[in-house]
Amino acid sequence: MATQQGIAPGGGVALPPTPEQLQNAFDNGIWYALSLWPALHVAVQNSWGGPDSSEKRDWFAGAVSDLFGGRQDTDAEDLEAFMLQIMQDEFDCNVEDETEGEVARTILVLRKGLLEGSLAEFENLERRWKNRGMMKADVQVVDAGDGEVGDDEDIDEMDEDEDRAPHGVQQAPREPRERPQPEVDDDGFTKVVGKKR
């Protein structure tokens, strides 16, 4: 429950968040940040990770949290590389629009705020997720074998399972595969390569 200027509901002084509340906010905040990432949303919506794509998204959030638990010095570059590898390995999706940088920065800002005892960035992410409505994904999707499939896709509805709360680790990662080189079209857009159907 959000408090304003340290005043708790009912007029008392708000207690600082407990370590458990901060960790829970970090885990859920990562899930919100990843769920708001258009590239991952398109991959889950189109089941590029197979029939359990939404569970893989949940596992993805847990894996990012575990990355910070194991390596406290994780920076934006490490996080971006980790996220791109998971997108490739789990969703057969080569993200080349550099949006992983924004998602990584969001997660690092969330982490910094929580380490300082502030839930403000978590509450902002939660509000953005709840108010997401129709996501406009400025993503070009390319079928690795047949060329362009979709362009500037409107995603009219979120998955039904997008409305459930974040979950922890549910699946182990697969072995990494070799990544194809980025493709840039005449307009300078980097293409997202999707799984061939």
Describe this structure in words.
This protein is mainly alpha-helical. The chain has a domain at 19-133. It has helices at 19-35, 38-45, 53-70, 76-91, 100-115, 120-130; strands spanning 135-136, 140-143, 147-151, 154-155, 192-194. A hairpin with a 3-residue loop joins strand 2 (140-143) and strand 3 (147-151). The longest helix has 18 residues, at 53-70.
Which labels suit this protein?
197 residues, mainly alpha, two-stranded antiparallel ribbon, 44% helix, elongated, Pre-rRNA_process_TSR2, rRNA processing, Pre-rRNA-processing protein TSR2
Summarize this, please?
The protein is mainly α.
Instruction: Please give the share of residues in helix.
Output: 40-55%
The rounded distance between the terminal residues' Cα atoms is 45 Å
Assembly type? single chain
Strand content: 5-15%
Major sheet: order of its strands? 3-2-5
Order of helices and strands: HHHHHHEEEEE
**Average predicted local confidence, pLDDT:** 75
From the alpha carbons, calculate the radius of gyration and give it in angstroms: 18 Å
Question: Which overall shape is indicated by the principal axes computed on the Cα atoms?
Answer: elongated
> Can you count the beta strands?
5
- Sheet/helix structural class: mainly alpha
Poorly predicted ranges (pLDDT <50, ≥5 residues)?
1-5, 146-177
Biggest beta sheet summary: 3 strands, mixed
What's the number of helices? 6
GO biological process, one term: rRNA processing
Keywords: rRNA processing
Pfam families: WGG
Family: Belongs to the TSR2 family.
